[in-house]
């Protein structure tokens, strides 16, 4: 990993300053388009943010998700909300403690899709086969999240996930579930109004 980018993410001020003193381009980016400033904001490393700003890092550069460095702090916050939401879900998609889950859900629904969808994608890549994450995403029903959810089904889906997609009320997810079932030799059945896992419904 690039020393400047990893130092920014870790908040290692000494290594960050040494990299910059050696003439490392301050706005160098990784394959996702994240610069050191993106990573510092995302990791909540305020000293690294201050150092990078002092050396002239560009706060307006957009990564491949279209996000500026300051927006990455909001992505990290959205990821934490998603993690908390997942902890509130039972295996069948029902809420474990509605009084705790409802405020989290309301905060997730208010997240702009341009922040929530990258948070969902990053969390899915990092946490691998978390079965509750797509269920939570269905319940939140963020505009534009369907393509990421389809990728999760294709990447680590199973029959129960396909059934949840089929019965979610989203036409995009229904088609994805039917394709997945056909490829994997399953028959999945639509059950109108499957309790607890409906698109955009708490």
UniProtKB/TrEMBL annotation:
ANK repeat ranges, renumbered to this chain: 32-64
Coiled coil: none
Keyword presence, DNA-binding: no
Entry keyword Nucleotidyltransferase: no
Pfam families: Ank_4
Keywords: ANK repeat
Protein name according to UniProt: Ankyrin repeat domain-containing protein
Source organism phylogeny: Bacteria, Bacillati, Actinomycetota, Actinomycetes, Streptosporangiales
């Amino acid at each position: 990993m690039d020393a400047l980018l990893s130092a920014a993410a870790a908040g290692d001020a000494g290594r960050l300053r040494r990299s910059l003193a050696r003439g490392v381009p301050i706005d160098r980016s990784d394959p996702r388009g994240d610069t050191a400033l993106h990573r510092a904001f995302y990791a909540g490393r305020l000293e690294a943010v201050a150092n990078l700003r002092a050396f002239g890092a560009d706060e307006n550069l957009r990564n491949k998700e279209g996000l500026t460095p300051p927006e990455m702090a909001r992505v990290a916050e959205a990821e934490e909300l998603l993690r908390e939401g997942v902890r509130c879900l039972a295996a069948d998609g029902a809420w474990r403690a509605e009084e705790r889950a409802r405020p989290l859900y309301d905060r997730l629904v208010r997240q702009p899709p341009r922040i929530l969808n990258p948070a969902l994608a990053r969390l899915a890549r990092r946490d691998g086969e978390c079965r509750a994450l797509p269920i939570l995403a269905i319940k939140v029903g963020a505009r534009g999240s369907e393509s990421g959810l389809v990728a999760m089904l294709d990447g680590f889906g199973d029959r129960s996930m396909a059934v949840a997609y089929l019965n979610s009320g989203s036409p995009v997810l229904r088609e994805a579930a039917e394709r997945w079932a056909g490829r994997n030799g399953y028959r999945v059945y639509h059950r109108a109004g499957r309790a607890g896992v409906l698109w955009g419904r708490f």
